[in-house]
């Protein structure tokens, strides 16, 4: 039993990191009422966390090279815990958004170190068991999040969601310091601060432009200015990375059609989760359900995803990531389409079948996503592939929430009409992603040759 304690320490942190992503799907409406926050502000409560994650994933990989995985992991936990305390005490939406951003800093540190920590302890069959358990924990966080958030919000307060993190962080830090090996910090590559700043400016201004356009329109001076800033920042980022000897992201990789296509599939895979934010708003503000009932209404997706990931992780291991990823994206898209068609007479039960099918698709995508990304590049670029995957996944969800907010607000009628638009857009994203997977994910022979787990999965080279 002693040899599994390091895995427990890593899984606890992963559970916390993912829980604070999924739990907000039922927490935001109550938060908005108490803090008198607008829909745009609520979007930022969700967006700032995933945006910071996307911006810092690659940078945290470089810090792991310099300081060691355990140090970055423990510091990330501490930052996450302190930020959770501030979230729980937040007097207004502005403080909550800022604290959520700091939470994202801790979350990024926790996320990039998990594979490195597991890989430093386990080998052979033990590695397979450890990764299976780790995959189940990620599915469990998705399944527990909506229900836990609903119970805490309805019977205590939305603030309890953040206060719950404090004892869990304390336990995880103590356990990590005891059972995880310190390791030797290396010299590592220098941190690409100019690249990080340019990428942050691009992602942040684009997200803000999408959110602002929902209120002021695309032609407003502020929205147009932000879109211009995003474009210029992207150009600057590209030039910096092309000239850097140690880039955050080697942009030359995007000259490979297979890599670009797979990254688009990664971004598309987040559409269903981005739509959940507005599904929850409709359930609580449109139908008048309490947080617990809203959480229960979303459980078909979470439970189907959890069960499918457990089964597919064991039964489909070693199979073609091309077919599995394409199928998962297609089912996710069709599931979102089945949820659409809501009207004034619709109930929470109207979503059940579509949510379950979406959950099956999400469960299939999880285990296959990493294999598809690594199959698109040579094994020696595995670290960069892992960093790009986590970055595109978080950025996809951030931009999805912002873009769907534009559709949700400008519906010109009942709230259900706005949600229908969101769900149709999510469905189209999943179906297009499936087509991209069929076209660009390497064929089974190539995937088999390059799909082994790379040594370094921290996001650095």
TrEMBL record:
Query: PROSITE patterns in the record, alphabetically?
Result: MFS
Regarding the membrane, this protein is recorded as: Multi-pass membrane protein
Please state every residue range assigned to the domain named Major facilitator superfamily (MFS) profile. 6-445
Q: Does the keyword Transmembrane apply?
A: yes
Q: Where are the transmembrane segments?
A: 41-64, 71-91, 97-118, 130-148, 160-181, 193-214, 220-240, 261-282, 294-311, 323-342, 354-377, 398-416, 422-441
* Compartments reported by the entry: Cell membrane
**Quick check: keyword Transmembrane in the entry?**
yes
Keywords per UniProt: Antibiotic resistance, Membrane, Transmembrane, Transmembrane helix
Where is this chain primarily localised?
Answer: membrane
What's the name of the protein?
MFS transporter
């Amino acid at each position: 039993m002693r040899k599994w304690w390091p895995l427990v320490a890593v899984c606890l942190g992963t559970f916390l990191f993912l829980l604070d992503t999924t739990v907000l799907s039922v927490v935001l409406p109550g938060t908005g009422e108490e803090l008198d926050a607008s829909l745009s502000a609520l979007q930022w409560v969700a967006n700032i966390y995933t945006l910071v994650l996307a911006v810092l994933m690659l940078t945290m990989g470089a810090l792991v090279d310099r300081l060691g995985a355990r140090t970055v992991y423990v510091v990330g936990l501490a930052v996450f815990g302190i930020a959770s305390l501030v979230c729980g005490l937040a007097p207004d939406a502005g403080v909550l958004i800022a604290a959520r951003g700091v939470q994202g800093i801790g979350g990024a540190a926790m996320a990039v170190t998990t594979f490195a920590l597991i890989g430093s302890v386990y080998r052979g069959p033990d590695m397979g068991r450890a990764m299976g358990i780790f995959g189940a924990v990620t599915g469990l966080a998705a399944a527990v999040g909506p229900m836990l958030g609903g119970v805490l919000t309805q019977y205590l307060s939305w603030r309890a969601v953040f206060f719950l993190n404090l004892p869990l962080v304390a336990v995880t830090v103590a356990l990590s310091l005891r059972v995880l090996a310190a390791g030797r910090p290396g010299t590592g590559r220098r941190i690409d601060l100019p690249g990080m700043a340019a990428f942050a400016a691009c992602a942040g201004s684009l997200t803000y432009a999408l959110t602002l356009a929902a209120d002021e329109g695309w032609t407003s001076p502020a929205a147009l200015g932000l879109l211009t800033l995003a474009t210029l920042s992207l150009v600057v980022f590209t030039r910096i990375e092309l000239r850097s000897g140690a880039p955050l992201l080697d942009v030359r990789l995007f000259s490979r059609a297979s890599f670009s296509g797979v990254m688009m599939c990664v971004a598309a895979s987040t559409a269903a989760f981005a739509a959940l934010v507005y599904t929850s708003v409709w359930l609580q503000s449109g139908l008048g359900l309490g947080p617990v009932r809203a959480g229960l209404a979303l459980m078909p997706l979470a439970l189907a995803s959890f069960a499918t990931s457990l089964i597919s992780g064991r039964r489909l291991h070693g199979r073609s990531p091309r077919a599995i990823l394409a199928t998962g994206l297609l089912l996710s898209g069709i599931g979102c389409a089945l949820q659409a068609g809501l009207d004034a007479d619709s109930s929470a039960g109207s979503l059940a079948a579509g949510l379950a099918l979406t959950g099956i698709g999400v469960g299939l995508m999880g285990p296959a996503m990493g294999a598809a990304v690594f199959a698109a590049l040579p094994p020696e670029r595995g670290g960069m592939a892992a960093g790009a995957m986590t970055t595109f996944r978080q950025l996809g969800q951030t931009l999805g929430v912002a873009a769907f907010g534009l559709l949700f607000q400008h519906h010109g009628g009942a709230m259900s009409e706005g949600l229908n638009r969101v769900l149709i857009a999510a469905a189209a994203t999943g179906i297009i992603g499936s087509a991209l997977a069929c076209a660009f994910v390497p064929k089974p022979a190539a995937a088999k040759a390059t799909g082994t787990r790379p040594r370094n999965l921290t996001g650095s080279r």
